[in-house]
Structure formats: C-alpha cells, structure tokens
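User: Second chain of the day. Same drill as before.
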Amino acid sequence: MYSRLLCPTDGSDVSATAIESAVELAAQLGADVTVRHVRTGDDGGLDGAALVPEGVAARADDLGVALESAVVDADGPVHEAILRHAEEAGADCVVMGTHGRTGLERLRLGSVTERTLRESTLPVLTVRGDTALDPDVERVLVPTDGSGYAEAAARDAITLAGETSSALHVVHAVDPGTFAAELSTSTLEAFENAGKEAVAAIADAAESDGVRDVETAVLTGSPVTTIVEYASEHDVDCIVMGTHGRTGVSRVLLGSVAARVVRLADVPVLVVPSPEGVEEE
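Assistant: Same format as last time:
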C-alpha cells in the first residue's frame, strides 16, 4: 500500500503522537518512516537526534521499522518544504498532527497541516494530539457519495483494511438539508437507493479483494455529523476520505466535508486526493 511514510515534526507533543502513529502504521504495512523538521528562522533550533522521542524510537526498533530523521532548512513556506521533501524521500503518504505549535482550537486546523492537505498529491494521515493510531487497526470507515473521488479514496480504504485484516465499514449519508424543499417520500427513497448502490459497489470491490468483514449503512442526516457519530459509535480506528466528492470544490480548497471531519473526528483521518482525470459522476 505505502512503502515510505514521511512525518513532519515541530517538536511538539502533537508531532510526537503523529510519529508514534506513523511507526505503528508502518509496522502493519511493512513501510519505512522518514521524519523531517523544517527549520525556520524563528524556531527553537531542534536537532536531528531530538526529533524522535526515545520511547517511539525504541518502539520502532522492537517492530523492525526503519526510521531516520533529519533537520532541513525551509526554502519558502513550510508546507511546500514538507511536500518537496516527501517527494525527494520517495514517500507515498504523509503523517502529521492537526495542531502543533500553532496552538489553534480544535475546530480549526493548524495552518501548516491545512495547507499541506490542500496541496498534497499524496494521501495525508492526520492525527490528533490526544489520539494516536491504534497499534492494532480493527475497523476502517470509508464514507461515499458515489462520486469518482470517493471511489478513489475507497481503493485506499480497501487496501488498508486488507493489509491490517480489519473490518471495512462503508457509509453513505442522505442529507435532506441540501435541498430547499422538503423531500417527498419517493424522492427520499430514490436518494436512499442511490446510496445503497454506492455502498454496495465498494462492498463488492472489498470482498473481491479478500476483505472478509464488510458492513454497509445508508443513513439520513448531515454527512459530517453522520460520519463522526458513526465512527464513535462503532469504535472505528481510522476514517478514509477523498478531498472532493460532490462538493465541487477546486483543488485549492479542501472539500468541506473532509475538512470538517478532520477537525471533529476523535480518530485519525486518512485524506486521499483524487487522481488526475477523476471526475464527478
């Protein structure tokens, strides 16, 4: 799935949790971990040896995860340096915390993480400072709206579930709030049937790929609330989402549903950018 994870750090506790999560994910995927601190003119002067907490380094050794770290100089915005070094390191996924030294409240992403999410062509796993990725991932959730963008994210979710021997939960939310008028029974049923087709398509693909435990649900309500509450109620370990879907947001902006789930979910969220050429259906 992924062979090298790049984990940016600013030396904060949130970054330490992200590195811990990267190591745990790497162990399950057979991947390496590369840690980078992007040095700016106003930081405290971290050195390479101090980037990885001792306990996390010991855990990587125990798990047989290759881990290397270095300090690099910023040549422009920090998020651009992160993405450039990810490319240079041959990384195929970025793992980072949603806070860090910005000290921003939970309802807002730290600016570096947000900008990285907006511009990354690689999947980005976001980790809250108080919730590391579970060492034994057992349940993966992928929401779908039936679009090509959601299907692209579903492919990573299916692979993650297969690699970690996890159950895959596939959810579609019918949101009556997006319509100006109250939906008739027949119209609501039509949207529910479309949702059933969307989740069934992903479930079929997962089962074809050998994922043995697949659960589907078509629910009514706000997609953000539905996704976050479902993840909590079903003890989901990781949510996998695309950055577009039917929001119609250009790549410069992160799809509103994905962004709000990243901000509100109590578990790590893997945000998968849509491949070039994928269009909404």
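The two ends are 26 Å apart (CA to CA).

User: Great, on to the next one.
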